[in-house]
Amino acid sequence: MIFGRSERGKPPVEPVTLKILVAGGFGVGKTTLVGAVSEIRPLRTEELLTEAGRPVDDTSGVEGKHTTTVAMDFGRITLREDLVLYLFGTPGQERFWFMWDELAEGALGAVVLADTRRLEDCFAAVDYFERRSIPFLVGVNCFEDAARYPVESVRKALDLDPDVPVVLCDARDRESVKEVLIGVVRHAMAYTAGHRQSVTT
Fold first, then answer.
1. Mind telling me which InterPro entries this protein's record contains (predicted)?
2. d(CA 123, CA 19)
3. Which of 16, 57, 72, 135 is 20 to 30 A from 3 (CA-CA)?
């Protein structure tokens, strides 16, 4: 860019921005997922776990976790010159859920990360997006020491509607996360198109 214009002499493109939330239980990999794909250094609001928080932060199944997100994670991906995706990772603990409404405002869709060792931890996020009619996808983060289950078994355990996508992923792997985000965008577009059609008929 030179003096607000592109090098080819074309006026600068004002990009369309999309917002996607990344939600799920405590220690499920939300911060890792945002960091795996963000083209900027992600904004993180992690703090060390303390003895004072031990009664409310259940670390069973994730005993190696020593930090927790206390506000949000933020990352950015430029998909095209005219299309930018912003990622907002929500805090996982119940005491921070009051922030979700503000983070969810204007969101195209959401990723609900799930850990098969603590599958019940993502019920709250699934319920949140269902109640607010925000399209979401469930990404099963395949931890190395976690049992693997078929996608349909996870769907049944979470009592998901048939149209909610469920995919296996690795929150550490950029390509895997990109596929998850593409899946969210596609699902959100189909959801919105179906919603419009039902309103006009």
1. Gliding_Motility_GTPase (IPR052705), Gpn (IPR004130), P-loop_NTPase (IPR027417)
2. 22
3. 16
What's the CA gap between 85 and 17, in Å, rounded?
6
DSSP result, the chain:
-BTTB-TTSPPPP--EEEEEEEEESTTSSHHHHHHHH-SSPPB--EEE--TTTTTTS--TT-TT--EEESS-EEEEEEEETTEEEEEEEPP-SGGGGGGHHHHHTT-SEEEEEE-GGGGGGGHHHHHHHHHTT--EEEEEE--TTSPP--HHHHHHHHT--TTS-EEEE-TT-HHHHHHHHHHHHHHHHHHHHHHHHHHH-
Q: What is the rounded distance in angstroms from the CA atom of residue 136 to the CA atom of residue 185?
A: 9
Q: Mind listing the pLDDT tens digit for each residue in 83-98? A: 899 999 988 666 666 7
Please state the length of the chain.
201
